[in-house]
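Dear colleague,

Thank you for sharing your sequence with our group. We've completed the structure prediction you requested, and as agreed, I am returning the results in plain text so they can be pasted directly into your records. Please verify that the sequence below matches your submission; if there's any discrepancy, let me know and we will rerun it promptly.
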Amino acid sequence: MAAGTHQSDSLPFYRPGCAADPGPTVARVFTRALALVCAVAWLSLATQVTTLIGEHGLLPAHDVFARAQARDASFWQLPSLLWLAHSDGWLVGGCLLGIALSMLAAFGVRSRLCLLLNAPLYLGYVVAGGSFMSFQWDNMLIEVCVLCAFLPGDRKAPYAAFALRLLLFKLYLESGIAKWQSAAGDWQDGSAMSFYYETAPIPTRLAWYAHHLPSAYHHFESWAALFMELVVPFCVLGPRRARLFAFAYFTLFLLLDTATANYGFFTYLSACLHLFLLNDTDVERARQWLRLPARPARAPSDTPAQRSPEPVQLRSYALGAALAAWIAASLNGAVIQFSKNPVENRTALQLYARLQPLRVANVYHLFGQITRARFEAEFQTQVDGQWLAQPLHYKPGPVDRAPPFVAPHQPRVDFQLWFYGLSFQGGMPSYVSALLDRLCEDPARVQSLFAQPLPAAPDAVRIMFHRYHFSSWAEHVRSGAYWTREELGVTAPRQCR
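Please find the predicted structure tokens below.
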């Protein structure tokens, strides 16, 4: 090797072209973008964590760990640092620590270490948060932070870049397989997008307009989404032009998702992964087009003269082995998830059961089947014999209230109540029962969830269920309503003490 050139860590079985693959510029942009997404995720969680899992929360973390201790569950079955302490102060403090680590990474201070530390810290909240933290993008954030730990910002790292590309490939292809296997066949017959905008958990105002586009367009969207997730992912592993095509296709759909529905930080995290479809030259051209100031190039952390080839080769083999193990674990999970016949291999099932709690080799199946009806739970309080609706901030409530833009913040109670609406006839989840209790006995603790002041001492509380539809053009012009709704039923009143 000529003096002055810099050696990258290359895999023994994967030697990509030097010019066409992501380099340190892409790595630095990705790391900072990921750090900002982490900061937003932590900030969103910090604003609601005590309401969700605090000492007087809807699903207290204390109860989660008490039940785990009662059944002698080990730390590796519930891998959460919150085992150590989970008072309200610790819960908020952990979120503030996550924000601090993320901002340090965003400013380039030990970025890889800060993001790696984010992974077990966030995992602790995912484990303790139960259904409130059960979203696929919560798992994805952990997986990305772990992989980012192998991504230096001062030299090419084919190993890490390839792993992050594979994660992008996995995200889209597995979601496409889930759509293809939909029991309703709604993606294959082209009908899925006809219902998507109206039934998304928290749609935006633009979803109302998208819903009223022609039926032929919705069918085109459905098939285009299948093409995007079953065919285009293979471009991720192809030559540069194929990757640029995938970048444009994926990003366009992501922009449409962001404009029409609120999925927390999911679309922003996915956009970060799209960067690995580019190379340093592409990023530099984008910087010049946007007229952003150039950042000085970072000096390599060491040079070939400073390190012997033996440790470098050993590290390459170690990284290659880790990548192979991660790929094997991901494939194992995918086979178990998508196989139509139950997997009978005990070793495969045991491996999946051991790794799944760590969230480092996840399976993704986003929007596998589109819901065709929207059912909403409306909380009501009774004062002096009169029932009053108590709308939440973000879920559909008053029919004339426009659907909001709230992402990248994710209001997790509003979001989770969408799932409750789909299965309300099957019983009441414990967090819904707890919310009714708080409305009765301690409204101040849940006031942050509701759009108007709650009565301090209601006589009773109940839930009324409605089926919602987007209003027609004519109705919207006439009354300004975005929704129409029909009453389905009501729970028995819960008397307050």
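Summary note from our side: The beta strands are 374-383, 386-389, 460-470, 483-490, 494-495.

Kind regards,
the structure core
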